[in-house]
Write a structure and sequence with these properties.
Blueprint (H helix, E strand, L loop, with lengths): L2 H7 L11 H12 L5 H14 L3 H14 L13 E5 L10 H10 L4 E5 L9 H7 L8 H11 L1 E5 H4 L1 H7 L2 H4 L4 H5 L11 E6 L2 H13 L4 E5 L15 E5 L2 E6 L18 H12 L7 H13 L6 H14 L3
Parallel strand pairs: 1-2, 1-4, 2-3, 4-5
Antiparallel strand pairs: 5-6, 6-7
Helix pairs in contact: 1-3, 2-4, 5-13, 6-13, 14-15
């Protein structure tokens, strides 16, 4: 059934051929629905991985995912909900994504986190969030309740998109990532009304994701990932681009040269130590790293806290300073 797609993706010296957008939607939809045999599934995923996904394929994949994604209502807020994927975790430096979450909630921005519960040897955000008292929801209705009442919820991938969770789990068997690892960065259960924090470590994927966000008129912030997670490297701010209505606008340029910031860091990357350090930041005992404060400002702007980028920069700076007062 899928042999002609596999043939085109794996043409060797003749060069692989990209799937059309409609074919990509059909093939990825079948993968999500469990309608592809193990042999064909492995061949398709490895073929796509080897040649890298084209823009049309990514758009088709996203259409397939969106058609099957659990839908949620935005909380009753004038501010756009920040949708934060977390799928990598810390390996060499502390995972400070939960710090960004708490900063956003401090100013009343609704936040939906989605991701894996297991770090597979890394320190997953789920571990740190648990130390901070933020537990995963087990159903879509519980997620909606948490959003409506607390403005913050963490929904596991297996609840938000069971098909994607199954594809992610193949990494251990195949020994490599697959297209699902890209698609989870782009989820928005609010049907285009959320603000997606999108990141990638590979420059090719950063460029491709920027094209995708522009082509699909997504509402998003795009930046280089920190160990695969969408928070600003506390040692050196990445370029942060705001996408809306098909246009990408650079809010912060990348800091060049040697790392400039020598901000305090957790004593270790372990969940308890990282959570304790984050609590100290929120208590005003330790300053917010400057790059994360800038990302905080970008979120305020993109969520509609203010239409004046200079004003939100000032607000973010004042709020960060207020924690120390």
């Amino acid at each position: 059934m899928f042999s002609h797609y596999i043939k085109n993706l794996s043409r060797g010296l003749n060069g692989p051929r990209d799937l059309s957008e409609d074919d990509a939607r059909h093939v990825f939809g079948a993968m999500l629905d469990g309608g592809v045999t193990d042999l064909e599934l492995g061949a398709l995923l490895l073929g796509l991985r080897t040649k890298t996904e084209s823009l049309s394929e990514l758009i088709g994949f996203q259409r397939a995912v969106d058609e099957r994604l659990v839908k949620l209502r935005p909380p009753s807020s004038t501010l756009r909900t920040v949708v934060i994927p977390t799928y990598n975790g810390a390996r060499e430096q502390a995972n400070l994504l939960p710090l960004l979450v708490l900063l956003l909630r401090r100013l009343g921005l609704p936040v939906l986190i989605h991701g894996c519960l297991d770090g597979n040897g890394r320190i997953a955000s789920a571990y740190i969030l648990r130390e901070l008292g933020i537990l995963p929801c087990i159903t879509p209705s519980q997620t909606q309740y948490q959003l409506d009442n607390d403005g913050l919820a963490f929904i596991p991938t297996a609840v938000l998109s069971p098909g994607l969770a199954s594809l992610l789990a193949l990494r251990g068997r195949l020994g490599t990532r697959n297209s699902a690892h890209t698609m989870v960065k782009l989820l928005d259960p609010f049907e285009g009304e959320g603000l997606k924090l999108v990141s990638a470590s590979n420059p090719i994927y950063l460029e491709r994701l920027g094209q995708l966000l522009s082509q699909t008129h997504a509402k998003a912030l795009l930046m280089k990932a920190t160990e695969g997670e969408p928070f600003a490297n506390p040692k050196q701010r990445p370029k942060i681009v705001h996408y809306q209505d098909g246009v990408g606008t650079t809010l912060f340029e990348e800091e060049m040269g040697e790392p400039r910031h020598q901000a305090s860091q957790p004593e270790s990357i372990q969940a308890a130590a990282t959570a304790q350090w984050i609590k100290r930041v929120m208590a005003g005992e330790v300053p917010v790293p400057h790059p994360i404060a800038k990302q905080f400002a970008a979120c305020l702007y993109a969520c509609g806290y203010s239409a004046d980028i200079n004003r939100v920069k000032a607000i973010a700076a004042v709020e960060s300073a207020n924690l120390m007062s």
